Amino acid sequence: MRAFIRLYTALGVLLFFLIIRCGSTPEKDPPLNVLMISVDDLNDWIGVLKANPNVKTPNIDRLAQEGILFTNAHCQAPICGPSRASYLSGLRPSTTGIYGQIKDQNLRKGNPSMKNVRFLPQYFKDHGYKTLGVGKIFHNHAPEGVFEESGGRIQGFGPLPEKRIKWDKEGTSTDWGAYPSQDSLMYDYSYAQWAENQLKKSHDRPFFMAVGFIRPHVPWYAPKQWFDLYPHDKLTMPSYLANDWDDLPEIAKQIAFKGMMPTTDWAIENGEWSKIVQAYLACVSFVDKQVGLVIDALEKSVYKDNTIVVLWSDHGYELGEKGSFGKQTLWSESTRVPLVFKSPKIDVKRSIHQAVELLDVYPTLLDLAELPANSTNEGKSLLPLINQQIDSNALAITTYGQNNHSMINMRYRYISYEDGAEELYDLLKDPEERYNIANYKALDTLKKTMRKNLPKTNVAWKVGSYYSINDYFIRTSKHSKNQKK
Questions:
Q1: Half-sphere exposure of 194 (CA within 13 A, CB side)
Q2: What are the Cα distances from residue 19, in Å, to 14, 15, 16, 27, 28?
Q3: Residue of 74, 139, 141, 217 marked catalytic
Q4: Which of the four pLDDT bands, split at 50, 70 and 90, describes residue 26?
Q5: What residues form DSSP beta bridges with 176?
Q6: CA distance 377 to 92
Q7: Percent of the chain beyond pLDDT 70?
Q8: Strand 405-408's sheet: what is its strand order?
Q9: SS3 category, 290
Q10: Cα–Cα–Cα angle for 386, 205, 364, rounded to 5 degrees
């Protein structure tokens, strides 16, 4: 009888604890860290995007193959300052009026929409994250207070030789050649080392770490070993059509004018085009190595299995395809960017070909980190797309100056300018955007449909808040004409 009572008592205690356990709230998974890697002026010349047959980017390719690669991603502005301001604020340039280069301390000046905005790292900080950053994140480094721990940024795009090697025009850092002698002298090397050291540390909170590399931004300098990967006389050169501008509206030519940069014709006549391409590719492979150092450090760390990684570039770059070198246009060479996500919450590994915007990264990171949505974000989370919910209406909009917008979907690129001029390209038949078909009457309905997606708000820009290589840098038609003179 006593044994029976003891058995009943034991079963009762066990049942009590089972009831308590089942009734308790299940433990949530610990928050995920975020590692954000940005690469300045990197166009679609990475191996996995297959836009250049010569480029060697094994580390970025590895990251893309382990996660989600967006093959049709586009920036919000084809120039550093406004692109980064848009990405990190979650607002379009047409909403903020930030169309040109801007100092970090001026980001909140000039437009009410920016006054109380929570920049992407700050939003994570508001939700308990430790924020860390090094290198070029915003246009300079970061506004005061955005990062709790900062590795800073070495100002400029050096190191620089005593004398320019090839190109010495005022208003640009453009130049190319093998310099300096070793990787450890490059600014990006120091940024990678800082990030590595942070990943070796023990952090008491989940972290949001931003690492901003500056190459392949001009000058195209890198140690000789990277140039040796690309013998210039063995390279496949980009396509170039000498009369490509013949069917463009005048404003398109004015906006695309880059008076301080080499032209493609000059580069061909002087035997420098292949050497410019060689230098750009050398810089791409150099920075790919630095990306690899950071990714390897993450893989060796305790944060390996609980960190979201996102890699992006602020805009594309033209390497002679459209008659010159640089960004600052509304064609694909300037707008298309690499965009890669890797996350413990994403089981699939694949490429997504629908059009997406850098504006979408902010809400996507919040979604992946299971943070509340930021109601001010103008982009949309890409998680449904990652989970294979196809959006047949997906498109991406790039803005350069007030009321100048470029729009791309899976089939067409449409460009609308401030004076009413237009461009239209059928990307299936004309992927290099050579033949402007905007004047075809049969396509009026298509243009009308695409125009409905243009931003309804186009805030005026204020010169006093901005700076650039020409005191201020907004390419309205009048400003461009003055530059060209």
A1: 20
A2: 9, 6, 5, 16, 20
A3: 139
A4: low
A5: 220
A6: 9
A7: 89
A8: 396-399, 405-408, 412-416, 422-426
A9: helix
A10: 20
pLDDT band for 337, please (50, 70, 90 cuts): very high
pLDDT (tens digit, 9 = 90+) per residue, 400-459? 999 999 999 999 999 999 999 999 999 999 999 999 999 999 999 999 999 999 999 999
Burial 397-417 (b: 16+ CB within 10 A, else e): bbbbbbbbbbbbbeebbbbbb
- Per DSSP bridges, beta strands 405-408 and 412-416 are antiparallel
Q: Which of 185, 180, 191 is nearest to 222 (CA)?
A: 180
C-alpha angle with apex 275: 273 to 276, nearest 5 degrees? Answer: 65
- pLDDT per position as a tens digit, 273-316: 999 999 999 999 999 999 999 999 999 999 999 999 999 999 99
Q: How far is it, in rounded angstroms, from Cα 75 to Cα 334? A: 8
Percentages helix, strand, coil for the chain, rounded to the nearest 5? 35, 15, 50
- Which amino acid, residue 162? E
- pLDDT over threshold 60, residue 250: yes
DSSP output for 90-132: T--HHHH---S---GGGTTSS-HHHHT---HHHHHHHTT-EEE
- Do 338 and 313 touch, CB atoms closer than 8 A? yes
Place of tokens 């205690």: 13
In 10 A of CB 152, how many CB atoms?
Answer: 14
Nearest alpha-carbon partner for 382 in 348, 426, 428, 331: 348
479 token code pair = 């400003």
424-450 core/surface letters (b: 16 or more CB in 10 A; e: else) = bbbbeeeebbeebbbeeeebeebbeeb
Is the backbone peptide bond immediately before 219 cis, with ω within 30 degrees of 0? yes
> What tokens appear for 411 in the block?
């089939």
Buried-state track 188-208, b at ≥16 Cβ within 10 A, e below 16: bbbbbbbbbebbeeebeebbb
Distance CA 178, CA 176 (A): 7
In DSSP terms, which residues pair with 318 in a beta bridge?
Answer: 326
80 is catalytic: yes
- Asked if residue 468 has pLDDT above 50, the reply is no
Query: Within its chain, how far is the Cα of 443 from the centroid?
Result: 32
Phi, psi dihedrals of residue 310, rounded to the nearest 5°: -130, 135
Chain centre to alpha carbon of residue 110: 24
Verify whether residue 315 is a known catalytic residue.
no
pTM assigned to the model: 0.91
**Cβ atoms of 282 and 227 closer than 8 Å:** yes
Catalytic-role residue among 74, 80, 217, 479: 80
Burial class of residue 155 (count of CB atoms within 10 Å of its CB; 0-12, 13-18, 19+): exposed
Query: What per-residue confidence (pLDDT) applies to 27?
Result: 61
